[in-house]
């Protein structure tokens, strides 16, 4: 079931497009915004609300990188693995992240604090390497900076 | 006609086609995967690469996908170009990088499009040395098997299932080389057209689960062209046998009828042929040893026949040959249809209309090409599924035509057309008693009782032709619906009206006719299509025999009656009390049938009839197209044979003058033509039994058929003589004519290099066009310029009666069929019996969903759980039609809920 | 040296508000157009200015607009879409424009929409640009409030609505037809062209998709004229260009410079040259999907034609520098990993070919490569070409690979012969 807030936000998106189902990506973003990820139940709820099938919703949901179809931690750490960051120290940074968090790529910490994910270019190649935690961008990141950065996220 | 140069040779090709279609139509072997003649091009697989050259001087050219380029006059292309060939071979190498190479254990092996193309492109040795990607498979229900690892991501499945057939629960998931085709989670595929995935999929991802139960390679099957037995549309099928078992049914292309697709009932509903419930021996009841041989039973039957009043009861599911043989045996005046007076009356009305020739009745292909469709009352999704699929195509194609008139795009440019069309739909008014999956593509829907639907029809007819009577006391809603629909029909160039017998309402038939005729008077080319109930309902109705009610009346005072019941479980069509009353008047009851049922229980003499797969027979479909279904395999024993052969034997034993010639379908059809002129042309449905090509028969078996000398070695080491088929020019061997047989005699599709069903391209005049030599079947009625006779009677509006409900049938694609239910998978998808009332009626009676409700009808009481149907008009009670064990009902009668047990 | 696009953008200062933008002369171009310039005149002006699409393809913007059906019988609504997806690895130029001077973009969009008489416009923004999203959202509201968006803009009778759409991550969304599918709420697979979006685009209606930087030029062209715009450039391609440099240079960053400065000037002067201890080995001049240029190309002009003549593409004009400490095989592996992951999975060569290429490169890096692997890589660079695949993703992926195989073949061979990566 979608919450009243979710429905209201989705209704706004529906009002901008010629037919309901065109707002499916927005609906997925809205629900993920509220719930952190998209469960099978969320897929079904969105499908019902937009009057399309769950398969149709999931076909779209699973296409995009940043719709999470599995639960994630309270904070999602995205490390840019694209070319400028690669040149500028992505590999040692990734190693440091994995060691400090005791996580491999794609995993969530047992206390559900962090999920670590590789990601394509974050668009700050002149300040590489970069990571993004939730909506916060960190650039020119060196392994030594990580502990301080993590403190902000509980 | 444009000329194109292929490898420097000029060819005339059809304008508006793409280069792949052009090449295939010319008979060239150009490999492809994602393109499908019924679905067009998307350019995904990149398999059909060719070179296009700017002009004669251009020697480099550029690679293009032939499916994505239209033909242009004077254009120069090369199929044989080395770079194009190398690329095509490379595409297969790419596709095969992750393919499991499990052909020996894959059901598709030997009939696999991927195998064909792999060989065709010359890709032999793999260079990919890394781990293969693997996927989990899904449970997709009892009919379809899923093996995702074999997938080559051609997108055909999802395009067919979702775009073409309107299914919702199969899709593509994820991205890059992880794309996955399946459901969002395990579960039964919801579309009743899911079986076509088996043929649409170019490899073994989607395979026939019923075949898996008794698997046989395509090359080991003995095949014959057959006609589907499960509804009145007469879809063309190919049925395959080995070791005396029917193994599978696949589509047999007929551009006018089913095209490329079947419904799941038609594809999977064949298991009754192999059923344990088959009648395999003649039985003479009430003897110490009931089983009797041929001669003994004939001897006994002779005593029952001579000196008795013979009554023959025909069957809407028996062949024309068998019905006619029965008529010949008992005499025209003693031959009855085994259906109720109400149904005979409605069907007679339909035959009258068709025979008058006033209105054209469209083929399924013509329905696909209609630009506006009105469905009046008939639940075609459940009673004529492939017609529903055709209606869907009409809706989609009309929208596409409308859009591409604004922005010119070729029709084959599938995704581009869809992106342009978006959600637009062509006109469909689906006016039915109950909601249907067709509603969501309908412009107009109305849920109403049959009489109200008929009134809407008459109101439309009146608007189209004001000289027709106005509908009295019409509601505003009715008039507004009628006005919208009549406008849309009037704007169309080729409108089609569809109705049928499943509402048991002759007013609907009349109303549909009036609309079509009124449109025709406005110089439209309107079509009027009727749906009947069984595979030969039309054939039987055209014989114009009397109803079962008449026979009951006629035998009331007769003595010494011997009734011969032909392949008809009367209890399915006629209320039990009436059948019992009839049987009580019969001294002798002879029943010919294939499966034991309530009627065969009553037989004094029970005679085993051949199923469609074991015999030849002609069936007349809903458009009065007579089609031949050929014998696939010899029955298990000599006593099982086509009913017409038994009937002819009985006739011979009775009449000294009988020459036994009427054992051949050919002779029977010639006799039928001379006796009943409405069947003129029926003898041309297939070449005669002595037809030969260069002295050779058409083999039912492929030249790769294996084990002929060994398969019966456990019984005898010497190879048995091939079976002889005296009734048709098909042979039971691998030898014979290997070229293109006449279209009614195509036992299977195969062409050198094309082992998969894609070989059908080679049998067509052009891809997606008619079969070479014309599509099979003979339409028995043609349009004339006869003036229409309009109706005068308009029924009153339906009014609920306090404490009473009008009893009407609800049809279930899976469940309402007598024979298809023998397929385990179909039985598992059939609903349990229920009684449905409208929401308000249930509330008034203080009933909830699931409450046991009992209803008394025809002197019998039935108790079933209540299923509240929110869309049902008040005052109507529904029972599921034709479920096994449910007797025939007095549809249209007013019944009351006699007791309520809470 | 004029820097019209970035003149009012100062690092570390918040984005210009509508008021501030107006004080720098903002929305004057819109006023000018609304007070009597016809859509056709705007189209012609932009075509005359020879403004070429800054997203990478380099097609004349005004001519692109001219394919849109005009007049009362044209299908509607028509759409104008700003492609701010900027997902090309190594590309970060549009961010500067989005975060620094949003109304410059909005004004450009309104002008472009006017030129094609679009009724609805979208900013399709890369998901990661959270800050830009807030700025654009706020700026759109400001523009509505000021009457620059909505009904009857400045009394001209022209209506335009504008919405922000943020992506959910897929490189494909940067391809204009895939972007349309994403906006329609579908999987972002590309569409066949023809029909071009100008004819059948978003929701099947005529649609123009332009890059952020392209649209930011429009108001300046309207204000100052086509000749002025041409005069900004050092080459036959008009205007200024946002060039960027990333990699091991002393001062990575973005600069607005006259179109056609040399690569040497860009890298050595603006980016400060290579960091101490490393040398320049190669440059991808316009993002991840362009061919390597090397030290021999340092003096070529960075315009569409000159870069093409040197065997590469100007692309987005944001270059990635490969230094002497970075293994070219590893570098290219990283790129192919990206492209393989970002393939939409629609057509065979891209979906199946790129992962194969990636795996071969990985095995080379692991010291498990064989001589035949180079033949397979060469085969892929030849067969994943334009026309063989459905869209330009895989051909783009092959550009750095085939040029690496050309310029750095020794490095590939060393991996095979030494059975390890020589840079480890």
| Mean pLDDT level of chain A | 96
Poorly predicted tracts of residues of chain B: none
Spatial strand order of the main sheet of chain A? 2-1-3-4
What portion of residues of chain A is helical? 40-55%
Radius of gyration of chain B: 28 Å
Coarse shape of chain A: elongated
Task: Tell me about this structure.
The complex is a heterotrimer of chains A (154), B (902) and C (424). With 154 residues, chain A is an alpha+beta fold. Chain A is 44% helix and 12% strand. Chain A contains seven helices and four strands, in the order ααααβααβββα. In chain A, helix 3 (40-50) packs across helix 4 (54-61). The model of chain A has no long low-confidence stretch (mean pLDDT 96). Chain B has 902 residues and is of the alpha/beta class. Chain B has 26 helices and 34 strands. In chain B, a hairpin with a 2-residue loop joins strand 31 (852-857) and strand 32 (860-868). The longest helix of chain B is centred in the middle third of the chain and has 22 residues, at 385-406. Chain B starts with a strand and ends with a strand. Chain C has 424 residues and is of the alpha/beta class. Chain C folds into three domains: 18-231, Rossmann fold (3-Layer(aba) Sandwich), CATH 3.40.50; 240-323, Ubiquitin-like (UB roll) (Roll); 328-418, de novo design (two linked rop proteins). Helix content of chain C is 42%, strand content 11%. Chain C contains 17 helices and eight strands. Chain C has a four-stranded parallel β-sheet with strand order 3-2-1-4, with helices on both faces. In chain C, strand 2 (120-125), helix 7 and strand 3 (161-166) form a beta-alpha-beta unit. Classes of the chains: A alpha+beta (154), B alpha/beta (902), C alpha/beta (424). At the A-C interface, helix 2 and helix 5 of A face strand 3, strand 5, strand 8 and helix 13 of C.
């Amino acid at each position: 079931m979608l919450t009243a807030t979710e429905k209201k936000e989705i209704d706004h998106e529906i009002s901008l497009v010629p037919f309901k189902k065109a707002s499916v990506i927005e609906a997925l973003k809205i629900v993920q915004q509220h719930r952190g990820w998209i469960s099978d139940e969320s897929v079904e709820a969105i499908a019902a609300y937009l009057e399309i099938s769950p398969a149709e919703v999931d076909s779209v949901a699973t296409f995009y990188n940043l719709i999470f179809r599995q639960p994630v931690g309270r904070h999602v750490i995205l490390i840019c693995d694209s070319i400028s960051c690669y040149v500028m120290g992505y590999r040692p940074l990734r190693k440091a992240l994995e060691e400090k968090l005791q996580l491999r790529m794609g995993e969530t910490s047992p206390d559900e604090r962090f999920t670590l994910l590789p990601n394509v270019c974050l668009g700050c190649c002149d300040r590489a390497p970069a990571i993004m935690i939730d909506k916060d961008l960190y650039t020119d990141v060196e392994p030594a900076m990580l502990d301080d950065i993590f403190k902000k996220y509980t | 006609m444009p000329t194109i140069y292929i490898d420097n040779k000029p060819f005339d090709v059809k304008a508006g086609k793409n280069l792949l279609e052009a090449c295939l139509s010319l008979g060239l072997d150009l490999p492809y995967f994602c393109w499908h003649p019924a679905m067009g091009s998307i350019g995904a697989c990149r398999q059909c690469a060719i070179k296009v050259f700017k002009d004669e001087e251009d020697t480099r050219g550029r690679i293009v996908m032939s499916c994505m380029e239209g033909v242009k006059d004077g254009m120069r292309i090369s199929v044989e170009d080395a770079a194009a060939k190398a690329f095509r071979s490379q595409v297969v190498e790419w596709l095969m990088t992750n393919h499991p190479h499990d052909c020996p254990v894959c059901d598709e092996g030997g009939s696999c499009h991927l195998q064909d193309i792999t060989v065709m492109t010359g890709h032999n040795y793999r260079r990919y040395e890394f781990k293969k990607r693997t996927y989990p498979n899904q449970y997709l229900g009892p009919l379809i098997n899923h093996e995702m690892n074999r997938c080559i991501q051609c997108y055909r499945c999802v395009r067919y299932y979702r775009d073409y057939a309107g299914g919702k629960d199969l899709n593509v998931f994820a991205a890059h080389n992880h794309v996955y085709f399946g459901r969002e989670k395990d579960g039964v595929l919801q579309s009743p057209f899911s079986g076509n995935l088996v043929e649409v999929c170019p490899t073994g991802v989607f395979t026939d689960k019923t075949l898996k139960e008794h698997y046989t390679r395509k090359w080991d099957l003995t095949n014959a062209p057959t006609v589907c037995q499960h509804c009145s549309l007469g879809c063309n099928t190919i049925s395959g046998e080995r070791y005396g078992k029917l193994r599978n049914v696949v589509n047999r292309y007929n551009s006018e009828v089913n095209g490329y697709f079947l419904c799941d009932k038609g594809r999977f509903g064949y298991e009754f042929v192999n059923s344990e419930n088959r009648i395999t021996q003649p039985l003479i009841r009430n003897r110490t040893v009931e089983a009797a041989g041929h001669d003994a039973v004939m001897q006994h039957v002779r005593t029952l026949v001579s000196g008795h009043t013979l009554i023959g009861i025909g069957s809407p599911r028996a062949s024309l040959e068998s019905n006619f043989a029965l008529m010949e045996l008992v005499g025209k005046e003693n031959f009855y249809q085994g259906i109720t007076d109400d149904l005979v009356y409605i069907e007679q009305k339909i035959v009258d209309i068709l025979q008058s020739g006033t209105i054209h009745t469209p083929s399924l292909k013509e329905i696909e090409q209609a630009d506006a469709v009105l469905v009046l009352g008939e639940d075609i999704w459940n009673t004529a599924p492939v017609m529903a699929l055709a209606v869907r195509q009409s809706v989609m194609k009309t929208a596409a035509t409308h859009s591409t008139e604004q922005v010119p795009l070729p029709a084959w440019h599938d995704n581009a057309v869809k992106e342009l069309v978006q959600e637009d739909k062509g006109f469909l008014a689906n006016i039915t008693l109950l909601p249907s999956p067709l509603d969501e593509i309908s412009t107009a829907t109305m849920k109403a009782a049959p009489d109200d639907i008929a009134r809407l029809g008459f109101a439309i007819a009146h608007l189209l032709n004001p000289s027709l009577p106005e509908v009295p006391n019409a509601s505003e809603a009715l008039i507004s619906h009628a006005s919208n629909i009549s406008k849309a029909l009037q704007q169309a160039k080729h409108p089609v009206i569809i109705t049928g017998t499943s509402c048991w309402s002759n007013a609907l038939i009349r109303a549909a006719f009036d609309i079509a005729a009124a449109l025709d008077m406005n110089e439209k080319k309107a079509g009027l299509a009727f749906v009947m109930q069984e595979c030969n309902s039309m054939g039987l109705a055209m014989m114009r025999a009397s109803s079962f009610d008449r026979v009951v009346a006629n035998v009331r005072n007769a003595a010494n009656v011997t009734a011969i019941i032909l392949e008809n479980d009367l209890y399915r069509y006629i209320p039990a009390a009436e059948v019992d009353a009839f049987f009580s008047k019969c001294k002798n009851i002879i029943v010919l049938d294939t499966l034991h049922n309530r009627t065969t229980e009553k037989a004094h003499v029970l005679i085993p009839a051949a199923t469609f797969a074991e015999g030849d027979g002609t069936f007349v479909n809903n458009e009065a197209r007579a089609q031949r279904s050929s014998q696939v395999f010899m029955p298990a024993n000599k006593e099982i044979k086509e009913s017409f052969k038994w009937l002819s034997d009985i006739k011979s034993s009775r009449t000294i003058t009988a020459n036994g010639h009427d054992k051949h379908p050919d002779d029977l059809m010639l006799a039928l033509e001379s006796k009943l002129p409405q069947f003129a042309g029926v003898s041309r449905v297939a070449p005669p039994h002595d037809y030969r090509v260069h002295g050779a028969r058409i083999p039912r078996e492929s030249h790769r058929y294996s084990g002929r000398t060994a398969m019966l070695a456990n019984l005898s080491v010497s190879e048995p003589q091939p079976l002889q088929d005296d009734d048709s020019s098909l042979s039971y061997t691998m030898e014979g004519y290997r070229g293109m047989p006449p279209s009614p005699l195509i036992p299977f599709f195969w062409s050198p290099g094309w082992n998969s069903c894609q070989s059908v391209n080679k049998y067509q005049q052009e891809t997606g066009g008619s079969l070479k030599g014309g599509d099979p079947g003979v339409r028995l009625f043609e349009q004339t310029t006869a003036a229409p006779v309009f109706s005068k009677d308009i029924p009153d509006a339906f009014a609920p009666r306090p404490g009473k409900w009008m009893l009407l049938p609800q049809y279930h694609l899976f469940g309402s069929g007598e024979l298809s239910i023998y397929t385990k998978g179909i039985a598992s998808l059939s609903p349990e019996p229920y009684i449905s009332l409208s929401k308000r009626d249930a509330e008034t009676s203080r009933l909830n969903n699931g409450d046991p409700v009992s209803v008394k009808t025809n002197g019998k009481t039935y108790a079933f759980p209540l299923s509240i149907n929110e869309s049902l008009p008040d005052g109507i009670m529904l029972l599921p039609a034709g479920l096994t064990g449910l007797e025939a009902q007095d549809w249209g009668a007013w019944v009351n809920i006699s007791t309520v047990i809470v | 040296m004029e820097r019209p696009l970035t003149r009012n953008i100062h690092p570390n200062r918040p984005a210009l508000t509508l008021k501030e933008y107006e004080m720098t002369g903002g929305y004057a171009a819109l006023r000018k157009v609304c007070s009597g310039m016809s859509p056709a005149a705007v189209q012609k002006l932009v075509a005359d200015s020879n403004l070429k699409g800054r997203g990478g393809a380099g097609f004349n913007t005004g001519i692109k607009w001219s394919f849109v059906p005009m007049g009362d019988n044209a299908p509607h609504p028509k759409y104008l879409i700003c492609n701010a997806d900027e997902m090309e690895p190594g590309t970060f130029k549009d961010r500067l424009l989005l975060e620094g001077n949003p109304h410059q973009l909005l004004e450009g969009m309104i002008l472009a929409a006017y030129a094609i008489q679009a009724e609805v416009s979208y900013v399709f923004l890369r998901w990661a640009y959270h800050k830009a999203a807030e700025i654009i959202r706020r700026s759109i509201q400001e523009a509505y409030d000021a009457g620059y968006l909505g009904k009857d803009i400045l009394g001209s009778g022209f209506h335009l609505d504008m919405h922000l759409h943020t992506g959910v991550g897929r490189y494909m969304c940067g391809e204009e037809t895939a972007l349309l599918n994403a906006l329609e709420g579908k999987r972002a697979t590309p569409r066949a062209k023809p029909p071009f979006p100008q004819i059948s685009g978003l929701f099947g209606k005529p649609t123009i998709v332009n890059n952020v930087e392209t649209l930011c030029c429009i108001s300046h062209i309207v204000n100052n004229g086509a000749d002025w715009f041409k005069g900004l450039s050092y080459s036959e391609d008009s205007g200024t260009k946002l060039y960027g440099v990333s990699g091991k240079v002393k001062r990575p960053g973005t600069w607005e410079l006259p179109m056609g400065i040399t690569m040497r000037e860009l890298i050595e002067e603006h980016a400060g040259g290579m960091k101490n201890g490393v040398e320049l080995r190669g440059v991808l001049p316009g993002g991840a999907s362009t061919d390597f240029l090397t030290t021999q190309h340092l003096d070529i002009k960075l315009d569409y034609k000159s870069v093409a003549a040197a065997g590469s593409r100007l692309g987005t004009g944001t270059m990635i520098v490969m230094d002497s400490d970075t293994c070219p095989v590893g570098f290219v592996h990283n790129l192919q990993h990206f492209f393989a992951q970002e393939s939409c999975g629609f057509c065979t060569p891209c979906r199946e070919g790129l992962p194969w290429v990636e795996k071969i490169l990985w095995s080379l890096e692991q010291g498990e490569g064989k001589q035949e692997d180079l033949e397979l890589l060469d085969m892929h660079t030849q067969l994943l070409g334009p026309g063989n695949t459905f869209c330009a993703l895989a051909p783009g992926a092959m550009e750095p690979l085939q040029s690496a195989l050309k310029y750095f073949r020794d490095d590939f061979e060393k991996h095979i012969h030494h059975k390890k990566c020589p840079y480890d």
